[in-house]
Amino acid sequence: MPTHVRKPSIPTNIVVHLGAPDDATAKNITVPFQEYIKNVASSEVYPTWPLDAIKANILAQISFALNRVYNEWYRSKGYDFDITSLPEYDQTFIEDRSFYEEIVREVDTIFNNYIVREGQIQPLFAQYCDGKVTTCQGLSQWGSVTLAQQGKSPTEILKYYYGDDISIVYNAPLSANILSYPGFPVQLGDAGDRVLIIKRQLNRISNNYPAIPKNDDSPYFTVETENSVKAFQNIFNLEPNGIVDKGTWYKIKYIYNSVKQISDLYSEGISAEEVEQLYANELKYLDQGIYIRLLHYLLRSLAFFDEELPFLGTTGNSVFDENTVKMVLAFQKKYGLPATGVVDRYTWGKLVDAYNELIENIPEKYLSYEDEFYGGRILSVGISGEDVRRLQRFLLKICREKRNIPGVRVTGTFDELTESSVKKLQQILELPVNGFVGAVVWNQIVDYANSKEP
Predict the structure, then answer these.
(1) Which pLDDT value is given to residue 1?
(2) pTM of the full predicted structure?
(3) Buried/exposed code over 292-313 (b: 16+ C-beta within 10 A; e: otherwise)
């Protein structure tokens, strides 16, 4: 399976808090990122400095700001902004100030470049100070002037202060700053990259807090994951319900940032492997895989009950083809989403919400088929509930009529015997043999149970 790495991009806008972090009377303003850097540079850099010193300082300012945004430093603490306007905490930003022409020209040239340390992916927390009134571990602004006068290039100046193991990322893409919290709680039965993020962060935190159980590296939110979340919540005085809501999500991120010292010049850092994703951020034309099969299942289930949505056949069921585009466009138009034909996180969230509402309100004439509808969560060992009981009844039917899977007890708890039967069926149906039952596996099990095949 191909993987994807969430690399830092340049945010279209940045939210600046005009005061100290805990000053509730200070307002937030949203400004284009380029304008923010022009403001900071015009507030902290003299336009008469050598050009190479100006460039080095602007790169440090860009990296500093991007580190705050990428790691959601303030948002992980419960604030609703990306950075403050004060040099005691961040960088100097003065609302409505004018910009120096020399600064504007240089920012427009290098605003999408930033500093990284070798082996890490996050923008460097490029600390700096004026070098006269204050000193620090990082760049000396007046010292950079001296180095530039000696003929040092911007990269040489930055390496002088931050070390030889840094490099510059050039021409990073510009994109909207999408917050990491998916917009809905992550909990038992979920799957995907959002689950991987939680597991990886909890595993790193557990190095410092051993009472938090380690997680495996699968993208499934299992009972073990729930126990790990509960242990974290207990330690940090959150309700120990095992559900990663917005508060728990950002508390995990804050502690993760803290134990890795992300806001530190010489932090442990984040490696590319830690941010690898199994799935693309969006599903689009000609994409293939099990997520496309799940997409088709959800779209067709909705279309079966809603005549405003087209029920169309697709290529092999696992290819995002022209009919998939038509179904997605119809869904997006009906639910007031941008009609792009591409399934982004917002379309996916609305699609899941619509399906969950459907199975909670199945029309009366179809209630006899209620057991056949996928319950909306991925089932695995240790999970209990009516959806598990329904699964076990289908497995028992297969066991009795086809006699090609192990026996199963209808208890409502997904035990090891249930897992053995699921794995055997996955093998028979040529599906990945992992013992997890999502929408695609559920649908195949139901079809197989109702078929006349031996």
Answers:
(1) 41
(2) 0.85
(3) bbbbbbbbbbbbeeeeebeebe
